[in-house]
Amino acid sequence: MWLLYAAGSAFFAGITSILAKCGIKKTDSTVATAIRTIVVLLFSWLIVFLIGSQNQITSIDGPTLLFLVLSGLATGASWLCYFHALQIGDINKVVPIDKSSTVLTIILALIFLHEGINIYKVIAIIIITAGILLMIEKKDLVKTNSKNNQSWLLFAIGSAFFASMTAILGKIGITNVESNLGTAIRTSVVLVMAWLMVFVTGKQKEIHTISKKELIFICLSGLATGASWLCYYRALQLGPASVVAPIDKLSVLVTVLFSYIVFKERLSKKQIVGLLLLMLGTIAMALL
Fold first, then answer.
1. Which of 173, 166, 189, 172 is nearest to 60 (CA)?
2. Which of 126, 30, 41, 8 is nearest to 86 (CA)?
3. Cα 154–Cα 157–Cα 163 angle in degrees, nearest 5
4. d(CA 197, CA 80)
5. How confident is the model over 182-200, as pLDDT tens digits?
6. Model pTM score
7. 81 partner at 20 to 30 Å CA-CA among 197, 203, 218, 250?
């Protein structure tokens, strides 16, 4: 049964990007992120009450809460960058770069958390990096007159960087608190940050102009994220983490498949090789 939950986690995580892309064709990505965060927040707290960890809130100390808040801020920054990159770039290019956060997380963990690294992990990092480079075409790195030609790449890189910071800060923050409760607290911070960005940039007026169709897709992307979390934590509860984690990483394959079906985005032969290397390195990293 845990295998089905793990597969469900990968599926829902994979379609999150597709649903989000459908919801931000005309809707500003910052506004969309703020709206979908409400849905994700409800799911995160649902998990907390399902497992009964809400009673631990009063026992959280100051330093732990500080790192949870910082982790939430990093998550918010990552989401804002990620969904803006999706809005102006191709899913097949944005998602692999976002997944590169795995490599950066390992490097940061080695520096700040003093976690060990072996030759096998180094090889896996090299494979992942090679895969990412193959996924990026030369024209994406060359300046052109199009303002969106390179900006999606910068936002995708920003998404990966802040996602890595989320992992490091979150690792420190959940040392003395139940992980699901920590996730719910971080998501609460993301909600505040996302809506603050909406009002600071003066985009709150755009909320009333969102079409019902795009609003549905935005909410569905939030539901997909929540469903992915529910399946993922249930799979972890029932099965071995060393197997659940690699299966969850297969979400990138789901995203690529649906991006072809929905948006007709095709991969070149070089990008297909890059995707295979990315997945091989990611799975190897999770198993090592």
1. 173
2. 30
3. 140
4. 9
5. 888 989 999 999 999 999 9
6. 0.81
7. 250
Q: What is the pLDDT of residue 144?
A: 47
Q: Where are the domains of the chain?
A: 2-287
Amino acid (1-letter code) at residue 233: Y
Tens digit of pLDDT for each residue in 228-245?
887 887 787 688 765 676
Could you tell me which of 219, 191, 177 has the C-alpha nearest to residue 51?
A: 177
For residues 112-130, b (16+ Cβ closer than 10 Å) or e, as one string?
Answer: eeeeeeeeebeebbebbeb
What does the alpha-carbon distance between residue 32 and residue 29 come to, in Å, rounded to a whole number? 5
- Count CB-CB contacts under 10 A for residue 58: 6
The span from the CA of 88 to the CA of 155, in Å, is 10
- Dist CA 71 CA 179 (whole Å): 13
Residues in the chain where the model's pLDDT stays below 70: 115-116, 137-150, 237, 241-243, 245-246, 286-288
Q: Measured between alpha carbons, how far is 102 from 117 in angstroms, rounded to an integer?
A: 14
Work out the number of other CB atoms within 10 angstroms of the CB of residue 269.
8
Question: For residues 201 and 177, what is the distance between their CA atoms, to the nearest angstrom?
Answer: 34
Give the Cα separation of 60 and 190 in Å (integer). Answer: 19
Residues with Cβ within 8 Å of 186's Cβ and at least 6 positions away in sequence, in order, are 68, 69, 71, 72, 75, 166, 170, 173
In this structure, what is the dihedral angle of CA atoms 166, 171, 173, 174, given to the nearest 10 degrees? 120
Q: Which amino acid is at 89?
A: G
- Backbone angles phi and psi of 265, in degrees to 5: -80, 120
CB-facing half-sphere around the CA of 257: CA atoms within 13 A: 10
Cβ atoms within 10 A of the Cβ of 255, count? 25
Of all residues in the chain, the percent with pLDDT exceeding 70 is 90
